[in-house]
């Protein structure tokens, strides 16, 4: 329970505080709401039932008294009314009253009683239904005027009102039947909500055990496909992604610190040697070696910044990019190295960021030229709604066991270290990140000679291409 305090200032300047208690438990709230709604429904149903029963009983009683009063009214007009009116049914109180309020004839139970009612039906409404209450209780009464003359007589037939209609007995009986039903509804609602929210309680208890240092725990998956089950499933999927991301970041931080520590340690060793033994160590060579280490550090830092932008920043608005033109531009900007032969397809357009896709092409060309012996081939084609860019070289190739490792961050095979000692080991990892960010793939496939890297991107729909539509 939570307490809300509300203050109010009166004209006298005094402050009064009162509190309103509102349950924070959903189970309690919904049980109270269901009970309140059931109370309103049962109240309406009880009131309707009370009206129906009361109307039925009163209608039957009035019909019986009216029938008896009508019978003796007819007998009175025919002069066949005895001095003591016999009783044949439940209507035991029958009186014949003249215009002077004198009881002329009556049934034996009504003998000696004053007139049953002071109401005298007028000529334009000779038959009336009445309810008369006295010290002995209430009666349902029918009054009939026997003629239109001023000195007409009146016949009254009365029946004691059913006991269930007196002293609110009918209402109390309906309430007594409705209260257990209302309690059963509240109890059932509480139990059903408890069963429904049990997975939430278990999940909350399990969630409290999860710490940043241990994200391996998962919430217990309830059966079925209701909203709570879907929520728990989504939470477990989020925990899977969080665990993967945390492990990825930890591994990345460890690899980055290791890769940065190696050139820094080399630079420190060379500079300290130059300071401690200036006679035997050439300072110019030490500075040149240190600058080479700085270049390697700068390359690693630049690639790390690229990875951070790809994974952490909002992507730039995509544009229609012609892969044929992109590859040709990347090849024309290259300065020397193994010749690159381009085999364009024509019409290979994708939706993406031109700068990032250019970075992928350049990384693939750098990797291919680094390992090629005589040539590099770049083939562009469209297959099944995809643009496929294949970069092949005639070098030593990549062993099947290393074809996934080359896309891991800071992974450098022995052949790559020999050919480019200053590489960062992030080029292919960055390329795959960019490809996946564009909804594509980058992988290493079988080749008869050398290595074969294949980039696949979704082909731009011609109907959504503004240039084609124009």
Automatic annotation (TrEMBL):
Catalytic reaction equation(s): ATP + protein L-histidine = ADP + protein N-phospho-L-histidine
Cellular component terms per the entry's GO annotation: plasma membrane
Ranges of residues in domain HAMP: 204-247
Histidine kinase domain mapped to chain residues: 255-461
Keywords: Kinase, Membrane, Phosphoprotein, Transferase, Transmembrane, Transmembrane helix, Two-component regulatory system
Chain ranges passing through the membrane: 30-49
Molecular function as annotated in GO: phosphorelay sensor kinase activity
E.C. number: 2.7.13.3
CDD domains: HisKA
Protein name according to UniProt: histidine kinase
Higher taxonomy: Bacteria, Bacillati, Actinomycetota, Actinomycetes, Streptosporangiales
